[in-house]
Structures are given as structure tokens and as C-alpha cells.
Amino acid sequence: MSTTSIDEFIRVSQLLSGLTLSVPIMMMTRDEVERIVSDAAADTTLSSLDRELRAKLKAVTAPEDHVQMTQAYEAYSEASFYLAMKDRGVVLERTPGTGGHKAKRPDFRYSHGAGELYFEVKALEIAEPLRRHKEIGHEALEVAAELDGRARQPGIHFGKPLEISGHLPNAGSIARIDDTIQKISNNIKPGQIEYGPTVLVVDLGRLSSIAQGPSGLLPVFFHAGPPAESCVSGELWQIALGLPGEQILSLPEFDGKSNLAGHQTQVGILRQFSTLMAITFFLPRWSEKPELLTIWNVGWDQTALENPCALDEHQVGDVLHDYSDGLNDQRNELGWDFRVSR
């Protein structure tokens, strides 16, 4: 009997339940998978994404299938991004020829009246995945075993808290920024971003970056609430446009503590890959709609593009503005509304 993506998601969740934990599966929600399945019936693009998700989930047969679970999340990420864009009035389609004859093209195409824009989705892995997927799973198993043993005794019992972090535990601002840049850079293939005017979409769901909201799109913003009032570096700005040697300001743990975090060591993504039109950070949220935060590389280098941009600057700006919850550009001219965070 044929199964659906939701059937496979439930099966995998039950495979892990009470035994161990997988960050990729944990970041997927049943509601979102159910919506993917239900909406796919009347949407050919989503139907293709749903089939891929089902196949990736079906490949998970054991709790230690970390690679397969990672691939399942990547398929889920593409489908979730597609739905998020559709909700915002930007209807995407698969880029023709993607994956054919080893072709490297962006995942999605958006057909505007004046021409096409493209979107390439990258779902970033947790830090040191080969080691830490096993480590997190083992720790979860130990917690479950300990709780099971104590539960056989009278009384109310609570398991030991399990700390789960996409970045390495206790990673500070510098480590988060530099490691994220490195992960993105390692995943970019020139053919995927030089086919046409392309927005790089970076899914930060598994990496769990610090929550700065749209203020993270600015070089520096003022944090006006607890735990301290302070100037803070926008981590998304630094990931996109930062330079080695730049001083990073972090949010102090309390008033009076220094906000000097150190100096960035990596070159920002839009500086490394100047043919990118923009970068959109896709931040999934369990109980709310995902957040899409964008930095536009106005005047980006189109000399290497196979299909140059046919939209003018105003038209590109309208598209980015329509789907983004926050938008800034490399000139820092569009982020004024986010200069204060509380």
C-alpha cells in the first residue's frame, strides 16, 4: 500500500520517540507536512516536492540514519520555502532542467512580467554534523534510559534537560558568524548562482542562530530592552557583507559588561559571491509563519550570468519587498525601521 509524506513522517517520528532524538526531524512539524501533502493535490510544483520529501523520509529505516534524516529535512525545507513564498504572493516553479545531465541550476524560478528571477535554497547543517548527530542522539538515549529506570519507582520523575544547539555549545557571536559563512560558502556551486539573477535562500532552522529579527540586517542596531541596553552587530549583515577584522558587538549579559566580542575572520557571502542578487535568510518557527529576512546586493555583478536580469532595479526591489519580513541593501539604506530592537 502506498504511503504519503505524513505517513512516513509519523513513522520516522515514532521510530525515534522515547528512544533518541534527531535535530532534522525535530525541526519538521506535522502541521507543515500535512499542508504539503494536502496542497500538493492541486499544485504540480508542490506535488514534485512532496514526492521528493516522501522518498527521503521513506529512506529512514533506523534511528542512526542521520544522513537520510538530513536529506529529508532538505527536501522539507524546499517545500516549506515554496509554501512561504506562495503565501506571500510569489508563486515559484521548478527551474527547467534542474538536475538533468548534471546541470547546476537554481532550485526555483519566478516568472515576473518583465523576466525571470531565480531562488537557490540551502538548508544549513548543524556544526560538526558527523560527530554531533551521533552525540546528540546518544545523549538523548541516555536521558531516556535513565528516566525509564527511575520511572519504575514510585513518585513523579523528570528527565535531565538535554541541551540542543545548532552551533557548538556556548558559541559566541564571532563563531556563529564565521561558521555560518563557512557553511554557506562550502555549499555554493557557481552554476547554481550564475544561471540567472539569483537569490540565495539560507535556511537557518537547524543552525538556530540568535534571534535578532529584522535588526540583524543592519551593521549595528541599538538593543533597548533586557538584559542590557547596548549597540549590537547585526549578525545577518555580517554573514552577508562583513569583512575580516571588523569589530563585532554582542549583546551583554547585563548592564555594565563589555559588548566587544572580537573580530570577524571571514568574508561575507555577498562579497565572496558578487554575482548573487540577494541573500534571504529563511527562519522557520514552530508555532508561527517562517520569517524571511533579505539583504539586496544592489548593482550586483551580472557579467558572468548566463541569463542577465531583465527586471529593472525598481521591479527587483518590489519583488524582494513583497516577500520579505525585513529588507536592507548593501548600502544600508533600507533598514532604518529596524535600527532599534527591544
SSE arrangement:
Layout: H1 5-16, H2 23-26, H3 30-40, H4 44-58, H5 66-87, E1 93-94, E2 108-112, E3 115-123, H6 129-151, H7 173-187, H8 190-193, E4 198-203, E5 220-223, E6 230-233, H9 235-241, E7 247-249, E8 260-263, H10 269-272, E9 278-283, E10 291-296, H11 313-323, E11 326-329, E12 340-341
Parallel strand pairs: 3-4, 4-9, 5-12, 10-11
Antiparallel strand pairs: 1-2, 2-3, 5-6, 7-8, 9-10
Task: Describe this structure as you would to a colleague.
The radius of gyration is 21 Å and the shape is globular. It has two domains: 1-87 and 128-165, no CATH class; 173-341, no CATH class. Strand 10 (291-296), helix 11 (313-323) and strand 11 form a beta-alpha-beta unit. Helix 1 (5-16) runs antiparallel to helix 3 and helix 4 packs antiparallel against helix 5 (66-87). It has eleven helices and twelve strands. The strands form three sheets. A seven-stranded mixed β-sheet has the order 1-2-3-4-9-10-11, with helices on both faces. The protein has a three-stranded mixed β-sheet with strand order 6-5-12. The mean pLDDT is 88. It has helices at residues 5-16, 23-26, 30-40, 44-58, 66-87, 129-151, 173-187, 190-193, 235-241, 269-272, 313-323; strands at residues 93-94, 108-112, 115-123, 198-203, 220-223, 230-233, 247-249, 260-263, 278-283, 291-296, 326-329, 340-341. Helix content is 37%, strand content 16%. With 342 residues, the chain is of the alpha/beta class.
